[in-house]
Structure formats: C-alpha cells, structure tokens
Amino acid sequence: MEVKKAGASLDSVISLFNRRIAELQDLVIARNMYPESSVTDLSAVDAAVKTMELQVQAIKDRLRDETLAIPKAKKLIDAAVKQQKKLQDLSSYVPSHIPERMSMLGLVTNRCLFPEGSQQNTGFGSLKLEEVPAALPKEKKGRSTPPLWFITAEELDSLSGYMRGRLTVEKINAAINDMATYAEANSQLISAPKKRVAGDSWEKALELRDIAMTEAVKGKHFFLETDMKGPALKPDNTGKAILTVLRHLGRVSETRIGPHRVIILLKRH
Q: Considering Cα of 85, then 90, then 93, then 98, what sign does the dihedral take?
C-alpha cells in the first residue's frame, strides 16, 4: 500500500517537471521567434516615449510662462482701462462736429473784403486774399484768437431740465465753434484797411469799430446777433436756448449797443 502511494507521488513530481520543462521550451521558442524585429520595436517605443516626455516638458514650460505673464497682463488691462477713462473725459470737451473754421472764415472774409462785382479774375482774387495777412502785420501782431471754451457733459447735466431741453453737448460745442468763427471774421473786418473792404461791408466795418471801442467790449472778441447764420448757431429757438445756456455757464455775456445785440466771448478763468 505504501509502495503504491510512493509510486504515485513520484509520478506526480515527474509530471510537474515535464510540464515546467514544456513551458520553458515555449518561452524560449517565443523569445527566439522574432529576435531582430523585437529589438527594433522596443527602440521605436523608447523613442516615442522620449518624444512625448519632451512635449510634456514643453507644455509645462509654456504653462509656467503664461502663469508668470498673468500679473503683467492684469497691469496692462488696468492701464488700458484708466487710459480709456481719460480719453472719455477728454472727449466730452470736444464737439463731434467741428466745421472747418479757417475755410468758413475765408469765405466770410472774402465776401466782406472784396465786392462781388469786382473786375478781378479768380486767380488774381485768390492771390490778393492770400496776401491779406502779410499786408496787416501791425493789426495781427497784438490780436489773439477768439476763445474756444467748450462745455462738458457734467456742466450740461448740472442745469435744470427746463433750461437744458433737448440740447446736447455736441450741439452746444458746435455752436461755440461757430461763435469763434463769427468773432474772428469781425476782428479781421475791424482791422482791415478801407481799400480791402467791399463797398457793401464798409458800413458794417465802421459799426463794428465803434462797438469795439466801447467800454463793455473793448479788447474782447464779439459778434452780433445778426451774424448768427449757422451752420450750428442760428437765430431760432434752438439758438436762443444755446445762448441762454452759455450765459448761465459763463461762456458768453451780452450787451446792447445801439440797435445791436452784442454777444461777447469770455475766456476761461
């Protein structure tokens, strides 16, 4: 009985050894089945892994740079917002519509200084007009330009709704530009010699000179109510409302000299 058990145990051990030998043989066969390609495949995998590692490192570096740049970007954004606020504040002082002041002034001066029925041709007339400033150095030397003291949105908002009406900052500032144009045209007409003033404008030039010598107007830029011919300031209800607002805001003052209503431009204090 014991001999049979011992024989069975020996057979079991032999069987296990044979099975292990077979497995080792299979592993050796699998190992040596593709000896050349196995090395190549492993090298390619190693190269791919190294490439991925480099890419991951590059991504980490870029993220680090972006993180460091965030505070600088925030500072730039804050500076841009402050600059935008400054520009918005400045824009409230500038009208959206500013006519070509010198071209309008040239048109008014041309009408006043040269008769329409003149025998001069166009080319000669333009030449004479260009020579006017050079011919009047004494009058021009001590004469300043009319003040352009525009209003702000805050000033307009400070007025009562009844006085403000439908007026806007743009409309009022465009009217201020017109007033400076009228005043400059009158200033040139006052200082122009008789030979350069059109016949139908000489009487107005004399009236303007008399007005300019009065105590209330002397040394100041002014225009007459009859000068209000646009494009922004006209003798209508809107024009009267604009003058009322500008008087209240200290941009102009008014006086009556003879039959004329005289509007005086005031300078910034």
A: negative
- Is a pLDDT exceeding 70 seen at residue 125? no
Position 103 pLDDT exceeds 80:
no
Among the listed residues 113, 139, 138, 135, the one whose alpha carbon sits nearest the alpha carbon of residue 191: 139
Whether 130 has a pLDDT exceeding 70, the answer reads: no
pTM: predicted TM-score of the whole model, two decimal places: 0.51
Where in the sequence of the chain do the CATH 1.10.10.1890 domains occur?
153-265
Rounded Cα distance, 101 and 184, in Å: 10
How far is Cα 235 from Cα 244, in angstroms, rounded to an integer?
12
Q: How far apart are the first and last CA of the chain?
A: 133
CA dist list (Å): 82 to 25, 60, 76, 93:
81, 34, 10, 18
Provide mean pLDDT across the span 50-77: 84
Residues linked to residue 254 through DSSP beta bridges, in sequence order: 263
Q: Which amino acid is at 19?
A: R
- Cβ neighbors of 225 (< 8 A, separation 6 or more) are 235, 260, 261, 262, 263
- Domain at 153-265, CATH class: mainly alpha
Residue 183 to residue 208: CA distance in whole angstroms = 11
Region 170-175 average pLDDT:
94
Could you tell me which residues come within 8 angstroms of residue 228 by beta carbon, excluding any fewer than 6 positions away?
178, 182, 234, 235, 239
Q: Which two tokens stand for residue 147?
A: 């003040």
Give 146's DSSP letter: P
